[in-house]
Hints:
Layout: E1 13-16, H1 21-26, H2 33-41, H3 43-50, H4 60-73, H5 78-81, E2 82-83, H6 94-110, E3 113-114, H7 117-132, H8 134-139, E4 144-152, E5 159-167, E6 171-178, H9 183-192, H10 195-206, E7 211-218, E8 225-229, H11 232-255, H12 276-281
Parallel strand pairs: 2-3, 6-7
Antiparallel strand pairs: 1-4, 4-5, 5-6, 7-8
Amino acid sequence: MNSLVPMLAGADRGQFSKIPKSTYHGDRTAVSKSVLDEVDLSPAHARAYLDGLRPWRYSRALDVGDVAHAMILEPDNVARNYMSPPRKLDRRRAPDKHLWADLEIEAAASGKTLLTFDDFTTAIAIRDAIFRHKKAASIFGKGEPEATFVWRDPKTGEHCKCRVDWLRSYFLTDLKTTRDASPKAFARDVINYRYDVQDAHYTDGVDPSIGFVFVVVEKIPPFGVAIYADQSRMRRLGAVKRDRDLATFAECKASGIWPGYPEEIQVIDLPPYAYKELENAE
């Protein structure tokens, strides 16, 4: 099993460059934001994730986002890790079906991810949109991609980790792909995907005083780009959630008990906006 913690060589924190993606994600010795998200579901989910029984579900959209990330952050790695057909294929036709089958064999043999022509073209459009955007292009014009940080949390003693998309001296940047990059939609994404927790966790590992910027790009035309800076209240909220989840993780690790969902019958309710139709009817 890969392990990042020994790289600290007894230090409380460290910054590392050019750590392979497989090494970072294969590590189960340090707590990532992904682990914290599993703890938020239940400690049992986190335990299953750490045991390799709960891998991330395959998603075609993730492949598009991953290759777009590579094109923007580490373009030299694109050809080494991804491939696609030279043209759009119609796999209902025998020649195209056979060509795709041959490409699948080649991808498996070389350890590459095979994308459809349309998905690869979409990733190129996402990349081009970023570099047409003056502010986004300037952000990614200087800095370090995929910087890995490992540190010991002083409150729990747990080792933690994060992998920063793009690091500059006074702020770090996370690149997000989404269907809707508008302020209202991205605010919902922050809540749904716990980006506030990511903000708190990453800045704790890098430097609590550093800024955090989200560069958000749509993965459908017109591939709109928006840039959002965090604010202190959002980070404080994320820190509350992060500290709670990390404390729960530490307690479960010490006790060896990883409970699932509560066994009691729970009353389910809906968020206020869901009741608008009822209010209108009344």
